[in-house]
Design a protein that fits this description.
The protein is built from 13 helices and twelve strands. It is an alpha/beta fold and 396 residues long. The longest helix has 21 residues.
Length: 396
């Protein structure tokens, strides 16, 4: 049965049948009066996923990268200074985008496997007497390294320096999978996409925007057209889109938000932690180590794992794909050939995770890795068995 195996990449993630069915639609008129019945409630309910009561949600037909571009072009001007730490491929790509838009980017280079350096942010912001830094950019969950950063600590650094800088956060691989608190953490723009925690195909950038960020729009001079917040907000307020929307994705997003609500966000977060911890137990049983430097940095959506010396991680992922029909994430940037990644987010269960662990063990055994076949599976099984919630049986 070709195509029946789950993927274990950090995104796009597995799509539940319920969401695929929700997107299986005949062509409809997006300018019909009832379009507002879909769009309005959806945008309002998305605020609950971001955990914002004061901000608003803006969507674009794009990937998360489009959301990045919308975030910077709607709030900043060429020549503005932004402060960014580089500790993985996705923070690096956001830096590159800022430079292409003519921003003056101050980069704090950190080792890959570390997180956002709130202490260094605090020092630099305190030293910025002229308040030239207009924004601090943070990648909440660095997908290349499996590292989750403390966004709340970054906000404390900004506030501790009494600095007016905006806080822009990439939460593409964390939102709807791990806890994210836009209001409580003082996030001004939060960027995500449809293809990770929302369990949908790529094609929708979903952006949470604070009142402070909205107030920055009139003075922003970066060119934008397709990604102009003003056009989208004006159209949304009238119940529409400024151009043709991706209707199937909007219907899929409507169904995804419903699924997340039925499970409950806290239960979603707990499920992701439990699945991730089982996989981490398996990795330890293999005698391997994570790229993330310490447990407080461990991501619950993706694990990046060092291969033993003398082995090529690309050979492993290629072998798993061609021999067993299962995809795992490759190492990115300087981790290419040295690291493989297990994505465990979105539509994922402990049983699915066990299949991913078992398949990796077969692939590693085929290639002569120094592992004991079944060790990782057993370690994960022990954890899942000890933490499973057994449904109560109804009385006869």
């Amino acid at each position: 049965m070709v195509g029946q195996n789950p993927v274990f990449i950090p995104g796009p993630t597995n799509i539940p049948d319920r969401l695929r069915q929700a997107m299986s639609l005949q062509t409809a008129d997006h300018r019909a009066p009832d379009f507002v019945d879909l769009l309005g409630p959806l945008l309002e309910d998305l605020k609950g996923i971001f955990k914002t009561g004061t901000g608003r949600v803006i969507t674009f037909p794009a990937s998360g990268t489009g959301g990045w571009e919308a975030a910077i072009t709607n709030t900043l001007s060429p020549g503005d200074t932004v402060l960014v730490a580089r500790y993985g491929m996705f923070s690096h790509r956001w830096i590159d985008m800022c430079r292409r838009h003519g921003l003056d980017v101050e980069v704090l280079d950190r080792p890959w496997g570390s997180g956002a350096p709130a202490d260094l942010f605090a020092e630099r912001l305190a030293a910025d007497r002229a308040r030239t830094i207009k924004a601090v950019l943070v990648t909440h969950n660095e997908t290349a390294t499996g590292v989750r950063s403390d966004v709340a600590a970054v906000r404390r650094a900004i506030d501790g320096a009494d600095h007016p800088a905006l806080l822009l956060v990439d939460c593409v691989s964390s939102l709807a999978s791990m806890d994210f608190q836009m209001d409580a953490w003082g996030v001004d723009i939060a960027v995500t996409g449809s293809q990770k925690g929302f369990m949908l195909p790529t094609g929708m950038a979903i952006v949470g925007v604070s009142d402070k960020a909205m107030a920055a729009i009139p003075s922003a001079r970066c060119p934008r057209c397709f990604f102009d917040f003003r056009d989208m907000v004006a159209a949304n307020d009238e119940g529409g889109y400024p151009y043709t929307p991706p209707l199937p994705l909007l219907h899929g997003l409507r169904a995804s938000v419903a699924m997340l609500g039925e499970e409950g966000l806290e239960a979603v977060f707990a499920r992701h932690f439990r699945i991730a911890e089982g996989i981490r137990r398996a990795i330890a049983a293999w005698g391997m180590t994570l790229v993330a430097h310490s447990p407080d940095l461990y991501s619950d959506t993706v694990s990046a794992i060092h291969v033993p010396p003398g082995f090529d991680s690309n050979t492993l992922t290629d072998h798993a794909y061609h021999t067993y029909g299962v995809s795992y994430g490759i190492g990115l940037g300087p981790l290419d050939g040295k690291v493989f990644r297990i994505g465990h987010l979105g539509s994922m269960t402990d049983v699915m995770a066990l299949s991913g662990v078992a398949t990796l063990e077969m692939a590693m055994a085929d290639l002569g890795y120094p592992i004991t076949l079944g060790a990782g599976v057993a370690a994960a099984q022990d954890y899942y068995r000890a933490t499973v919630t057994i449904p109560k049986q109804k009385a006869a």
